[in-house]
# Entry
Amino acid sequence: MPVAAPPSSTRSRRGEPRTYDFRRPTKLSREHVRVLQIAQEAFARQATTILTTFLRAGARLELIGIEQYSYDDYLVTLPNPVFISTFTLEPLAGKGLLAYPLDIAMATVDHMLGGSGRAEQPSRPMTAMESTITNHLLSRLLDEFAASFGAITELQPALSGLEYNPQLAQAASGSDTVMVATFSMAVGNREGEATLVLPFSSFAQSLNNAASPQLSESAIAKRKRAAEALTARLNLVPVDVSVRFAPLSVSSSDLLSLAVGDVLLLRHAPDSPLEVTTNDVTFAYAIASNHRRRLAAAIVPTPQAVKDTA
# Structure
């Protein structure tokens, strides 16, 4: 039975210890986080404007950080009940998830209906009318989300559903890696944390492309000149080359018993070419020759090439 790697304790976005599974190494690189941070901060700014306009009250959304979780590990960080909105990510596969405290969600409805939002809010699922009002706000937030991520990939997100029990929010498989952006959220006198969850696998290629943007023509030309200069210098590096018979395997006892006058059979066929090697790597074949009264080696086709021609 395979033995699982021991877990290590790390800090979650709330400062609480959470388990790190060494069998699932980090996929979210520093470059990915940098690209995501730019997009998520842009979304937070636009979302603040939308919330303030729709609710006609003071509102704020500020990015705290971005972390990688397995979907199951993320769900256990959510309270129950909590307001959860899932949405599709066309043309990408998978779903996204936006979650924030239920009392803030109820307060937004109160504000949009002309209330102050200060009253005690019910801790229950929304009615059909409350859901319709909230969906209008969420649709505008998703439009801003798509615009903010335009530099990474084109998206056409659409609301998929509302949920209040984290265990019933089927946005991904439990073992899937998700990217969790955590925001501080305030509506009127209420404050809490909001999280925007995206599947890593759906965004992986787009994040790689965004983290390594296309170079300008001048940068490409500079890299080409550097590569040519490096090649030219490498071509001048001296390399020790040997011409040898085919290697021979000898037992340790025979090797230790060798004496002057003993004959060591090379087992190199008379018509076989010699091996041209460097650092024990054979890269050509040759036959013994001479050049201006000096012993030389004339390069010949490889034995396999000769057989293929025949």
